[in-house]
Amino acid sequence: MSKWVEQRKKSVLPVYFVGAAWLVCGLILPLYQLWALLAAAVAGAGAYLVGRRLCPDIVTRVEVPFMTGREDVDEMLESIQAKLAELHVLNDRIPDTGLSASIYRMEQAGTRILAEVERDPGKGPQIRRFANYYLPDAVKILALYAKMEEQGVQGANTSAVKREVEANAASIAAAFEHQLDSLFASDALDLSTDLEVLQGMLKGQGLSG
Questions:
Q1: What is the CB-side half-sphere exposure of residue 168 using CA atoms within 13 A?
Q2: Lowest-pLDDT range, 6-15, 154-163, 184-193?
């Protein structure tokens, strides 16, 4: 989910204050003498402190789509989110009911993958192939299909490609769902182990039927 974070940016005006202080000192002091240089340095430092007080940091609030604590995972999730948005638009552009149902399954699986990895960034490496290949390739194929549909392109080759896309869309959706299921494999194993331990404890206490 999107979050708002504060970003601080230092004002450059204090630097100009320093420059102005040195300029004034250069006009009234013999900077070729050591004491004058020291006086100018002190004046510059004072000008900087005054500038910092008069011109505090600029604070802006920026919306961050993901903030898992891992920059590489955040970038990957942003990429997935963008591709899922494209997938949603393509679903609206493609009138074929069967193909649309498969695209909807892809969207649902992709959205749940996104949510699960955001919840547990440690699962990020498991979906890199999905993020870098499977999802972008699916979007690319469906975008070409939508383009051919909208332009009314006819011909044996075009028809064959469209039939192939329609025939394989369900398989692509199933692959997305399998990717989602694989994210919960370790959780399912932990749950099974916990249940076995609990059953053993219950039997040991004579509480199991």
A1: 12
A2: 184-193
Provide the terminal-to-terminal Cα distance of the chain, rounded to the nearest Å.
45
| Tokens of residue 30, six digits | 């013999």
What the block records as the tokens of 177 is 């769902």
Helix (H) or strand (E) holding 4: strand 3-9
What are the Cα distances from residue 185, in Å, to 60, 173, 190? Answer: 42, 19, 9
Q: Which of 74, 112, 113, 105 is nearest to 87 (CA)?
A: 105
Tokens of 191: 């749950």
* Average pLDDT along the chain: 82
CA distance 192 to 208: 17
DSSP element (H, E) containing 164: helix 156-183
Q: Are 66 and 77 in contact (CB under 8 A)?
A: yes
Two tokens at 122?
A: 């440690």
Q: Is the pTM of this model over 0.85?
A: no
Angle CA(166)–CA(104)–CA(114) in degrees, nearest 5? 125
pLDDT in tens, 150-177: 887 677 777 787 888 888 899 999 999 9
**How many alpha carbons fall within 13 Å on the CB side of residue 31?**
12
Confidence tier at 29 by pLDDT (50, 70, 90): confident
> CA-CA distances (angstroms) from residue 143 to 162, 199, 208?
12, 52, 57
What is the Cα–Cα distance from 80 to 138, expressed in whole angstroms?
12
